[in-house]
Amino acid sequence: MPRTNRHFLRRIVGFTLIELLVVIAIIAVLISLLLPAVQSAREAARRAQCTNNLKQIGLAAANYESATTSFPMSYVQVGLNGFPKYWSDSGWGCWSPQALILPYMEQGPIYNSLNFAVASYENLDNGTQATAACTRISSFLCPSSPLPIGTYGYRDDFGMNVSDTLPGNNYFASVGPSMAPWTSAKPRGIYGIGTPAPNSVYPSLGGSDMSRGIRDITDGTSNTISFGEWKMGDFDTNKVSITDVINLLATTSAGIGGDDSWNGNSFSFPNNLPSNGYTNLQQFLQNCAGAAPGSVQQGNNNWKSNKSRIGYTWIQGMFGNGMGNTVVPPNSPYPNCQLEPWGGDMDSPGIYGLSSYHPGGCNVAFADGSVRFLKSSTQFNVIWGLGSRAGGEVLSSDSY
């Protein structure tokens, strides 16, 4: 073969630059098409784990009821540093249902490290609960949710050699469609806050309404929400987020519809509503959304108006920590909202509702231990009916 022909054959072996660019472009297109599928598969796995977490919690609560004939309410204990018992009527220092069901979730060592004769909160217990309180329990954390940012005050306040990382909590015990959690307000869900028996300071707390068992869930255990899912806060009081709890009384002079007396202890849905109750609720939600921008303009008092710590702990039975409600549908476009006259924590009437990082809704555990996915499009009256234990509502599964 002539030398020129052999040289020509050697030159045509391989790829040109244009061919390489075309191949790279095709690979890039294939990756871009595949990536959403991979992300969707990962979210499906996270959602399945979240469902499993709630399944464990729901079954643990059901087993607790089977063993004790009542579901785990949120109970009061006295603090070691002089705080009187009546501070806990709203949840301050109360023990959460999550803490009480730990033995039924194979968390016996953590449960045994708790001293239930002492209050649960860090500025009431003198560090007694520090080890357990700072423990992150995977069953209380949705894998789709970011972890909480910040610390407890154990190390600084008590000079303790502990890791005081915030544990976080994505699953709340539901008081139902009620704005107030304490038992004197008669919340319509399974759980509530109070003392095991009436006391001299708050004689209205406790008594016959404290213990709620299957016998009290006349709507049926498969139709009554036991635990719900929520997004944890962003732990930043300097920016507005849908996960924030906006304190309406810290940013405006009026509460709902120009009248902050709307926060009555018995205010529940749909019972105990005035004739314009739903209208007032809509006005309340709009007022909260309107107050949200101003909640980060209070300077050093942002912590009073913009509560960004929802779900930061599982140990305390207080709204925003271990307890929540079913007043609004999942993933409401409105922020969580409260009526806290002194501005401090989340021990006040308000909306602390269902939300998640799962597209289209969130998971809930029912009183029979089953777990279902509630769509964000669920109607208000359906959420109220699912949250109440004895409302007599008739609901079909296709309504949520």
What do you see in this structure?
The protein is an alpha/beta fold and 400 residues long. The chain has one domain (42-399). The chain contains 10 helices and 11 strands. The radius of gyration is 25 Å and the shape is globular. The relative contact order is 0.15. Mean pLDDT is 82; it is low at 200-206 and 253-265.
Name the features:
400 residues, alpha/beta, five-stranded mixed beta sheet, 10 helices, 11 strands, 28% helix, globular
Shape designation: globular
The secondary-structure class comes to alpha/beta
The tally of beta strands, per DSSP, is 11
Helix content: 25-40%
Count up the helices. Answer: 10
Uncertain stretches of 5 or more adjacent residues: 200-206, 253-265
Beta-strand content bin = 5-15%
As laid out across the biggest beta sheet, the strand order is 7-2-4-10-11
Arithmetic mean pLDDT:
82
Total tally of structural domains: 1
Rg over CA atoms, rounded to whole Å, is 25 Å
- Major sheet size, sense and barrel closure: 5 strands, mixed
Give the N-to-C terminal Cα separation.
Answer: 80 Å
Strand and helix order: HHEHHHHEEEEHHHEEEEEEH
Give the secondary structure arrangement, pairings included.
Elements: H1 3-11, H2 17-68, E1 74-75, H3 97-100, H4 108-112, H5 130-133, H6 154-158, E2 171-174, E3 193-194, E4 225-229, E5 245-247, H7 248-251, H8 277-291, H9 302-305, E6 306-307, E7 323-324, E8 336-338, E9 350-351, E10 361-366, E11 371-375, H10 380-387
